[in-house]
Design a protein that fits this description.
Radius of gyration: 13 Å
Helix content: 25-40%
Largest sheet: 3 strands, antiparallel
Number of helices: 3
């Protein structure tokens, strides 16, 4: 799956594309850091915002996501190449649980609800 990343895209459009491949996962975009190398604020941006509101590095490109990609790899690519910080959540019943302890699992494993 390829997702186009550019400053004009809305967060909800990227979330929908991601969710089409991984229906039990939810990707959330955090606010941009004050400068490169600074930690991102913990604030999650609303889906109607543009990607440009979430980053200070404004590289455009095509992000290739595969089911065997790990969560850690996805986070690293988004950070390094596009200046984006994300949180990934997995659906468990009616709740959304953050995947912080399972970053070595693939996106498909997380989508299937597997754990370490």
């Amino acid at each position: 799956m390829k997702i186009q990343i550019n400053d004009h895209r809305k967060i909800f459009a990227i979330q929908e594309e991601f969710n089409n491949l991984f229906p039990r996962l939810k990707i959330e975009f955090l606010g941009k850091p004050n400068k490169t190398g600074s930690p991102a604020p913990k604030k999650i941006h609303k889906p109607g915002k543009k990607i440009s509101d979430c980053r200070i590095k404004h590289t455009s490109g095509e992000l290739t996501i595969s089911p065997n990609m790990t969560i850690a790899d996805l986070k690293q690519i988004l950070s390094d190449k596009y200046g984006l910080t994300i949180k990934l959540f997995r659906q468990s019943g009616t709740e959304w649980l953050e995947t912080t302890d399972n970053n070595k699992l693939s996106l498909e494993e997380q989508n299937q609800g597997m754990s370490l």
